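Extended Data, panel c. Modelled sequence:
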Amino acid sequence: MQGCRGFVAQPAGFDDATASCIQPRQRTLQTIVVQVIARAGFQNMYRFVRMIGKIGDRCKSLVIVRIAFEREIMPWDLEERLRENPDILLLDVREPYEFDAMRIQGSLNVPRGILESACEWDYEETIPELVRAREREVVILCRSGNRSVLAAHSMQVLGYKNVVSLKTGLRGWKDYEQPLCDARGEPVDPDLADDYFTPKVRPDQLRPKD
């Protein structure tokens, strides 16, 4: 825990035995967990670790980051920010095929998988506009707001000063009846957007009942 960015004092009840409850592959979230506990006022971290241990690793990461990050905005907030700040950077972290299907006009596509290297110089994935945007207002977008909140936390760690995630993602933006365009810049029909953002889960992808 020493030397971690954003380290805060350990809550009462946090000791080496408690730390051992966190698996090695979860250590990257350990500092965030401590911050969550301190903010929530838990007196015993072990209780919290046991609580989040009942959910899957991916959901666990989202729960922890969402509680700790706090910087999410709703679609109506983004609508207002776009009016007030024409220099705002809309960063879409979906995959290119998703971005080509529909997007917010003027947004920049950087897939989540290459985001960290795209934010730094000297990589094949480096995107100069993004590297230079550490002082700009940045709003991160994805389909439903899950990838974007994780991406926003990563960018905050990398030194971006004013970065937020769009809660509910482009699905929520569409539900708020805001415009989307396709790869040619043409407006997307609302009925087409409704169909696109409707989850299509196959029977074999459903959680077993047993």
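DSSP finds eleven helices and five strands in the chain. This feature is highlighted in the accompanying rendering.
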